[in-house]
Each structure stands twice: as structure tokens, then as C-alpha cells.
């Protein structure tokens, strides 16, 4: 605990600090114009258990799952027929017919039909952005209550027709005479009939997310052992949290599933060590990423109830935590300058600096485990002097964290990762942990959430317990 | 889904729990009715169930008895705008007969009112009510007085077996110093007359004290009160939650986390809140109190409904089956009650109502563990009553007989068919029948009714 404090306090990126052109961070620390007029608080959350793709929710749509997550939240807080200020949620894998997914889910839920809603999408950071955006609206006084959410189904993913067939079908629709129609139909070739399934590949590099991370993992010399240990801790911590009834007021069962189906409470380092590499096979012996230390494709949905203090108090609802602040960052992974999932390594220093905090001021870290390698690469970057100096514009390394504060109730490696639903899971769980922790040294307990996302993005936030 | 669809799907879920069995439907009209009559098959009636704003009874009420008690009861009924008769008019169909027998001192005095009652029975409407009002027989009574009073017990139980077409007979027992028009007696009278007591037959309620003098709100008797119902995700528990909400209560529904999805649906339907909680956890009572007080500022009504069965002949019983039934069905209730009784927040005329079972009264092969727990509940209720009296509260139990639920739907067809006909009403009850009895005990007007075990069994042939 003393080590990170010593390291970190000396390494505050000063606002507007002069730095080399390489510096991605310090020149960009935003300064709030004025203090937020009022606070945005987290009342609680609800999610459905996360299911491995093709499992319990194989035949559930995004709308089914988001509606179920909303209804569980409504029941927990007695909000049936209540009009909420706004509901914002999204899905990464989304059918085009679901253009109004969140509003449709609201209409199918127990909420008042006069509750407005909108969809948003920022890859795996969708849920985080929903929380931050709605919190800002509450802070500004535009709304008094909000529900942030996210949902994803890898099982019920949209499959599009091929580009060739799509062009032909659109032409066909425009054709006027039978002759024209026959001519257009005759253009169809067998290859046009193969469907176009979505992938997690990056459009600009053609590499899957796992292949990208494999490069980063190798770059930061993260060992197989370290990744397997992180994966094991995730499973053990999540299982322990279930045993302590931690999730009794965070999860509502769905389709016969009571717990995250990916969780392996009986996992062991030996079992994890037996798995063959799944990503970075071209690296040969340096390939360290397996199915065990990477998240599986997952189905699930989550929601978080946000409010002004007054709104919560008027309904005698609990207040678990404040949404203090949030920050987004992006990296140039296309040209290989940084790893695809390394944006949080830049977002966190900026966010802490803006709030006058260091890593040592944080009591719980929730670093999304897209891959064990992502978490460990981020921590390695923060502990690296050169990275701190050349990329963050600091005097030295940004700092290290007390690993006992990291993902203490398990994270995505065990729970699974339904892309847009992960943010809501993290925010609701962390808010409850901070509330249960109570004040630390006379100040509110603080938690940091870090979520990486496709496209080289990252969204991070600070919560303060009540 | 449009909001309208939403409402439809909700009413569909409630309807699922509330269907009349197919046989009863078949023999209640047309060819089936004819056939059953010719073959001498049982002809269960389709019972009238309570709907808000519906009539109390279907037809005039004949009040029998000559004393001040009878006059007072007649006046109560007139105040309710009922059509009251003090003498039967031949051929006029009656909705109910109330026999006020509170002044009995000798069995000889039974003859006149009973013969008058008998003569009027032929004129009873379908789903009519016969209610007696008499006094509790106790060992301090003179032998002739006790004989007369206890005689009413035999009359009601026999008459209930004679009545047809959904009519029931029940009785109110007054403690010695309680008048027939005391609020608690009046509340019991209204319950027995109404469709709320559709599946209660051949039973007695005891009014041990006068009870509340506050002006009753019969349509929304639970307005402003906060209730908790355990095991509320489905079946009888869900119906209890719906019924308490219909009567005006704000309801906190509790069930194990694994039943959370069904629980959430119930909570949202009745505008309550869901608490996912295992009632066998040591702090369950405290957590229920905490939730109720922090969200609603009070807790008035506790319904211990959660229960499990783990049936085995005693010779084949194992510790897991025995212990889990005791832990869920009775030990948890004892522990939670301790927490409630220790709280100053549960002190304003509080109500505890436990769901027992006819298995706990008559016993049931293969259910020694379950019967132990349910008989235990009745013992607990009787000895908890004085503790609640100190704070103006009551504690009672409702013992359901054969109720049509998901649980009883799993009984093999033939066994189920026999089980549901083995009562005077020749059918299984509905979850709402149990719920209505519980809602009655929760009413402020029932403040003088405590330590009762009310069977909701259609007068099942077994036990008392």
C-alpha cells in the first residue's frame, strides 16, 4: 500500500504540462468549467446471470434480456408504472430491426410507457458511457432519474446477407418491369448466398481482438502463469461473492439460470495450464493466451438506477455511491503505436489528475478482464518508467496498485462478457462494494472502473461510496 | 409490446393460478350436468369468489334468534344496506341465514332456532351462507351451558355437510364478555357471509376480545398498511400478495434468489417491491424489517407463507429431508418472529399470519416431517398470541386443504382427482381462497381475533 502511494504521488500529470509530442495524455486533461451543480447517485442495479453463448439464453433476444433486466430493477426498487427521466442502453451486436431497442424494452417492461429512452453504442464501453452520460444529465438538472443499461447476445447475433446479394436485392426492389427483375435475379451467383456473420475482427487491421491483445501481451512480457493466476482469482472471487450472497440484490434469475454459467468455482492453475493457446499462435512459444484466460462469447443484460439525491430521498430509496467523474480515451492501434485495448492506460491518469487523486487514493479497482493479458498489460504500462515518461508525460512510472484491491468480487473472466452489459455489471457491483465498505480514513471509499473497447477506445470512471 | 399487451400478459399470469378444474366445469352445465345427475356423480358447484364492489350476499339475509344479540346483528346488517328478514317468507330465496345463539343455556334451547333454520334451508340460493353466532364453551361454564354451546359445533359441522350448490356453514364463537355486535365478531360475520370465505366450510372463528373501534373501510381494509409475504414468487404466496395489495396494502414480496424472476413479476404487478432472501438465513427477520422500514417507514403485517415439502415415509427418512423442512417451515418463522417482536417498529397493532396445513391437523402418510412443521406452526401461533396482545396485535394461522397449485398439479391424476373431491364442496380450493382468509386476519377490524387456526379446505373429511 505504501509503495504505490510513494510512486504515484510523485507522478501527477500536471494539467497542461509541457510534454513531448509523443505524450498522449497530459496535454488533454480537461478542466471542468465549474463544479457540478448537483450530484448523480447510484441507487442500485440489476442484471440477469450471464450465460455462455449458445447456452441458457440461446433463444433469447436482446430485447427479451434487456426487458428482464429492467423488470428485475423495477421490482427491486418498487418502480412499477413510474416514469423515469430517461433510459439509455445499447447492444454491440444488434439487429437493424432493433433500431429502438431500449425504448422497445421500456415499453415491454413494468415502467411507465411515458419513460423516454435512447440507444447508444460504444463497443464494450457502451454500458459505461450510458452511466456517465445519464449521470451528467442528472448533474445538469435535465433529468432527476435514469436507468443505464446494456445487453448483448452472441447467440442471437444478426447475420446479414452478403454484400453482393444485398446490392442485387436492393436493385430488384427498384426494378419496375418483369424483364428487369429477371435480368437482376440472373446476376445472383452461388457465392452471393453465403451469409455474412459478424466477427470481433477490427475492420482496419483484420485482426481479431484476441490476436491484437496477443501482440500487446507479448509486448509487455506478460507470462502465461500470471494470466492464469488472474483468471483463477476471478473465478474464486466470483464464486466467493455468490457464497456470501453478494449478488442477492444485484441479480434476478432468467430462463432458469441463477448464476453466471461461465463461472468455474473448481478451476485450478493445473487445469488452466493444460489449455492450448487460442490467440497469438503465430508467436510460437510466446503464445500465452488461452480460452481460460480470455473471456468467452456471452449473452446477458444489466441495468443501473441513477438519480439525483432528492429523487432517491423522496422515494426512500438507498444511495450506494456517487458517480464522481468519467473519462474516455482512444489510441492509434492501427499504426501499432499502442495495443488495441490500451486506451484505459491513458484515460485513468487523466481522470485521476482532473480529480486530484492518485492510484493510492483508490480503494477498489474494477479493471474489466477482456483478457487477463489486458489487465496485466495495463498494470505493467503504469509501472513502466519509460511509458510514464514518454507516453504519459510524467516524471516516471504512473504507479502500481495493491492487487488485493483488484476485482475483489471477480470480473469478466469468470462472469463472462456480454459486451454492452459489462459496464452496468461493474458499476452496480462496485457501488454496492463501496457502500458496504463505508468511509476510509474519514473520506468516502473510492472505486475506479476501467473498461477497454474495440476501436482502440477506453472509458473509465470514479465512484465514491455513501 | 404495447402497454395494453402488458396488461393482458399480467392478467394471464393471474388467471393461470385461478382456474376451475375441468370436471367441475363439465358437470356444471349442459350435458355434463345431466350425466352427472343420472349417474349420481359428485356435482361440485362453481363457487362465487370475491370481487370488489360485488354484493355481500346474493339475496335477503334471515336473522334467527330472539335476544338482544340477534337484534344487534340484524341492525349491523341493516347498516350494511342488506335486505334483512327476522322471519322466513316461504318460497323467498335467501342469500344467507344468520342464527344468533349467544344466549344458549341448555341443549333444550337448540330446538326452536334449529328447526326454524332447517325449514329455511330449502330456500337457500346457490352459494348461500349459514353463519351461527354462539359462545365459546369452556370448563368454567355450567355443564348444561357448555353442552348447549358445544352442541353448536356439531350442528355447524353437520349442516356444512348437508348443504349443496356451493353453500357453506360456519360459526363465530364469542368469548364470554364479547357482544354479538363487537367489531371483531362483526368482522368475522362479514368474512363468513362474503365470497371471501368461498372455500371455508364447517369452521369456526373465535372472537376473544372486542377489537378495533375505528370506522371500518370494508373495500380497502388494509389501506395504508405495509405487509411482507414470504414465498411470494408463485402459487399461494403470489395470490396472498395480490390479495393484500387489492385490499390496499403495500406489499414487500420475499422469496429465495433462485425464484427472483417470478418474484419480480409479482412485485411489479402489484406495485410492491421484491426482496430476494433465503428466510433460513439468520438475519432474515432483521433484513425484512430493515427493508420495510427504510422503504416504507413501517411494517404492519407479516405473512409466513414460504414452505417446502420433502415427502418420505418415516422409515425411509434422511436427515437432509427432515432438517430442511423443519428449517424452512417452522424454525425460520420462530427466528423471524423473535426479530419482529424485538423491534419497536413492529408495535402498532401488528399482525402475523402463518400458513399451516391440514396435514398438520390430521397427519398425512409420508409427511411426518411436513406435518411436524405445520403442527409446530399452530403451536407457535397459540403461544405467540399473548406476546402480540401486549402490543395490540394478533397472530393466526390458516390451514389450507387441497388447493389447486403448481405443486398439487404434480400429484398423479387419480390421486389428485380423489383428493380434490374429498370435501363437502367436492373440489379443490384456489390459492385466492387461502389468500382471502389471510387478508381477513390482517384487517384492522379483526383485532380481537387471535390464536385461531382457520381451515380453508372445503370441509375436508379428515381431521376436525
Sequence of secondary-structure elements of chain A = HEEHEHEHEHHHHHEEEHEHEHHHHEE
Which two chains share the most extensive interface?
A: A-B, 27 and 29 residues
Instruction: Extract low-pLDDT stretches of chain A.
Output: 1-11, 14-26
CATH topology-level name of the largest domain in chain B = Rossmann fold
Please give the largest β-sheet of chain A: 10 strands, mixed
Describe the structure.
- The complex is a heterodimer of chains A (466) and B (464).
- Chain A has helices at residues 2-9, 62-77, 101-108, 126-140, 163-174, 178-185, 209-219, 224-243, 269-273, 309-314, 343-354, 372-383, 385-391, 412-415, 422-437, and strands at 40-47, 51-52, 86-89, 117-119, 145-152, 277-279, 289-290, 298-308, 321-330, 364-367, 446-453, 457-465.
- With 466 residues, chain A is an alpha+beta fold.
- Chain A has three domains: 2-34 and 203-246 and 263-296 and 323-465, Peroxisomal Thiolase, Chain A, domain 1, CATH 3.40.47.10; 40-158 and 298-314, Peroxisomal Thiolase, Chain A, domain 1 (3-Layer(aba) Sandwich), CATH 3.40.47.10; 163-193.
- The radius of gyration of chain A is 23 Å and the shape is globular.
- Chain A starts with a helix and ends with a strand.
- Mean pLDDT of chain A is 90; it is low at 1-11 and 14-26.
- By secondary structure, chain B is an alpha/beta fold.
- Chain B has three domains: 3-39, no CATH class; 61-207, 3-Layer(aba) Sandwich (Rossmann fold); 226-456, 3-Layer(aba) Sandwich (Rossmann fold).
- In chain B, strands 9-8-7-10-11-12-13 form a seven-stranded parallel β-sheet, sandwiched between helices.
- In chain B, strand 10 (301-304), helix 11 and strand 11 form a beta-alpha-beta unit.
- The longest helix of chain B has 23 residues, at 319-341.
- The model of chain B is unreliable at 1-17 (pLDDT under 50).
- Chains A and B meet through helix 2 and helix 3 of A and helix 9, strand 9 and helix 10 of B.
Amino acid at each position: 500500500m505504501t509503495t504505490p502511494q510513494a510512486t504515484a504521488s510523485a507522478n501527477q500529470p500536471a494539467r497542461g504540462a509541457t510534454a513531448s509530442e509523443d505524450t498522449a495524455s497530459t496535454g488533454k486533461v480537461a478542466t471542468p468549467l465549474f463544479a457540478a451543480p448537483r450530484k448523480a447517485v447510484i441507487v442500485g442495479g440489476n442484471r440477469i446471470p450471464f450465460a455462455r453463448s449458445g447456452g441458457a439464453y440461446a433463444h433469447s433476444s436482446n430485447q427479451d434480456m434487456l426487458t428482464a433486466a429492467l423488470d428485475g430493477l423495477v421490482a427491486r426498487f418498487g418502480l412499477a408504472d413510474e416514469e423515469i427521466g430517461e433510459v439509455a442502453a445499447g447492444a454491440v451486436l444488434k439487429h437493424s430491426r432493433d433500431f429502438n431497442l431500449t425504448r422497445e424494452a421500456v415499453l415491454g417492461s413494468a415502467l411507465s410507457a411515458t419513460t423516454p429512452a435512447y440507444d447508444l453504442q460504444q463497443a464494450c464501453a457502451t454500458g459505461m458511457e450510458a452511466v456517465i452520460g445519464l449521470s451528467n444529465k442528472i448533474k445538469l438538472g435535465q433529468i432527476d432519474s435514469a436507468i443505464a443499461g446494456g445487453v448483448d447476445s452472441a447467440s442471437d447475433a444478426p447475420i446479414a446477407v452478403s454484400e453482393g446479394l444485398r446490392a442485387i436485392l436492393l436493385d430488384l426492389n427498384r426494378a419496375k418491369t418483369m424483364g428487369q427483375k429477371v435480368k437482376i435475379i440472373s446476376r445472383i451467383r452461388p457465392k452471393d448466398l453465403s451469409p455474412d456473420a459478424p466477427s470481433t475482427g477490427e475492420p482496419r487491421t483484420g485482426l481479431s481482438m484476441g490476436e491484437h491483445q496477443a501482440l500487446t501481451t507479448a509486448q509487455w512480457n506478460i507470462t502465461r502463469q500470471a494470466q492464469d493466476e488472474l483468471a483463477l482469482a476471478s473465478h474464486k472471487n466470483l464464486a466467493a461473492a455468490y457464497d456470501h450472497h453478494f449478488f442477492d440484490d444485484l441479480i434476478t434469475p432468467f430462463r432458469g439460470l441463477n448464476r453466471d454459467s461461465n463461472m468455474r468455482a473448481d478451476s485450478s492453475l493445473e487445469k488452466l495450464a493444460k489449455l492450448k493457446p487460442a490467440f497469438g499462435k503465430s508467436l510460437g512459444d510466446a503464445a500465452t493466451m488461452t480460452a481460460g484466460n480470455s473471456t468467452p462469447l456471452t449473452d446477458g443484460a444489466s441495468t443501473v438506477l441513477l438519480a439525483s439525491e432528492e429523487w432517491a430521498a423522496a422515494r426512500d430509496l438507498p444511495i450506494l455511491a456517487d458517480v464522481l467523474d468519467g473519462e474516455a480515451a482512444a489510441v492509434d492501434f492501427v499504426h501499432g503505436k499502442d495495443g488495441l485495448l490500451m486506451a484505459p492506460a491513458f484515460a485513468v491518469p487523466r481522470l485521476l489528475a482532473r480529480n486530484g487523486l492518485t492510484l493510492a487514493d483508490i480503494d477498489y479497482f474494477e479493471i474489466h478482464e477482456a483478457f487477463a493479458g489486458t489487465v496485466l498489460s495495463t498494470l505493467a504500462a503504469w509501472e513502466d518508467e519509460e511509458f510514464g515518461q514518454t507516453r504519459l508525460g510524467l516524471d516516471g512510472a504512473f504507479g502500481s496498485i495493491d492487487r488485493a484491491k483488484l476485482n475483489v468480487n471477480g470480473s469478466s473472466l469468470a462472469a463472462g462478457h456480454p459486451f454492452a452489459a459489462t459496464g452496468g455489471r461493474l458499476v452496480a457491483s462496485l457501488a454496492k462494494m463501496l457502500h458496504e465498505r463505508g468511509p476510509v480514513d474519514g473520506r468516502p471509499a473510492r472505486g475506479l472502473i476501467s473498461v477497454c473497447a474495440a476501436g482502440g477506445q477506453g472509458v473509465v470512471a470514479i465512484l465514491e461510496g455513501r | 409490446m404495447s402497454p395494453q399487451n402488458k396488461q393482458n400478459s399480467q392478467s394471464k399470469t393471474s388467471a393461470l393460478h385461478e382456474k376451475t378444474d375441468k370436471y367441475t366445469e363439465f358437470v356444471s352445465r349442459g350435458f355434463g350436468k345431466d350425466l352427472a345427475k343420472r349417474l349420481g356423480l359428485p356435482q361440485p358447484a362453481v363457487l362465487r369468489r370475491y370481487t370488489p364492489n360485488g354484493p355481500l350476499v346474493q339475496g335477503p339475509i334471515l336473522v334467527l334468534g330472539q335476544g338482544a344479540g340477534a337484534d344487534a346483528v340484524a341492525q349491523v346488517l341493516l347498516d350494511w344496506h342488506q335486505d334483512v328478514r327476522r322471519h322466513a317468507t316461504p318460497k323467498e330465496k335467501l342469500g344467507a341465514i344468520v342464527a344468533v345463539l349467544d344466549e344458549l343455556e341448555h341443549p333444550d334451547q337448540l330446538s326452536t332456532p334449529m328447526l326454524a333454520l332447517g325449514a329455511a334451508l330449502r330456500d337457500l340460493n346457490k352459494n348461500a351462507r349459514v353463519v351461527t353466532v354462539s359462545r365459546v364453551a369452556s370448563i368454567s361454564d355450567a355443564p348444561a351451558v357448555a353442552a348447549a354451546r358445544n352442541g353448536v359445533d356439531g350442528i355447524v359441522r353437520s349442516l356444512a355437510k348437508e348443504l349443496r350448490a356451493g353453500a357453506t356453514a360456519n360459526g363465530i364463537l364469542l368469548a364470554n364478555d364479547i357482544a354479538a355486535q363487537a367489531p371483531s365478531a362483526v368482522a368475522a360475520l362479514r368474512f363468513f357471509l362474503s365470497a371471501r370465505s368461498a372455500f371455508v366450510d364447517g369452521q369456526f372463528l373465535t372472537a376473544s376480545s372486542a377489537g378495533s373501534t375505528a370506522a371500518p373501510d370494508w373495500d380497502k381494509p388494509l389501506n395504508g398498511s405495509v405487509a411482507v409475504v414470504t414465498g411470494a414468487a408463485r402459487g399461494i404466496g403470489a395470490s396472498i400478495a395480490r390479495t393484500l395489495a387489492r385490499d390496499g396494502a403495500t406489499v414487500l414480496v420475499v422469496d429465495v434468489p433462485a425464484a427472483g424472476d417470478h418474484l419480480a413479476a409479482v412485485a411489479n404487478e402489484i406495485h410492491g417491491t421484491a426482496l430476494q432472501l433465503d428466510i433460513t438465513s439468520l438475519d432474515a427477520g432483521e433484513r425484512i424489517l430493515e427493508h420495510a422500514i427504510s422503504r416504507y417507514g413501517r411494517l404492519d403485517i407479516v405473512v409466513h407463507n414460504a414452505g417446502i415439502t420433502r415427502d418420505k415415509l418415516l422409515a425411509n427418512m434422511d436427515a437432509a429431508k427432515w432438517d430442511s423442512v423443519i428449517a424452512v417451515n417452522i424454525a425460520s418463522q420462530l427466528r423471524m418472529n423473535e426479530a419482529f417482536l424485538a423491534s419497536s417498529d413492529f408495535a402498532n397493532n401488528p399482525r402475523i399470519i402463518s400458513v399451516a396445513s391440514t396435514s398438520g391437523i390430521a397427519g398425512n402418510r409420508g409427511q411426518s416431517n411436513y406435518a411436524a412443521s405445520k403442527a409446530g406452526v399452530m403451536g407457535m401461533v397459540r403461544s405467540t398470541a399473548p406476546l402480540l396482545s401486549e402490543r395490540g396485535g394478533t397472530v393466526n394461522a390458516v390451514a389450507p386443504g387441497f388447493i389447486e397449485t403448481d405443486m398439487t398439479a404434480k400429484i398423479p391424476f387419480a390421486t389428485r382427482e380423489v383428493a380434490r373431491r374429498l370435501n363437502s364442496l367436492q373440489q379443490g380450493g384456489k390459492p385466492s381462497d387461502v389468500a382471502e382468509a389471510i387478508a381477513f386476519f390482517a384487517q384492522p377490524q379483526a383485532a380481537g381475533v387471535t390464536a385461531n387456526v382457520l381451515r380453508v379446505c372445503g370441509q375436508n373429511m379428515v381431521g376436525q
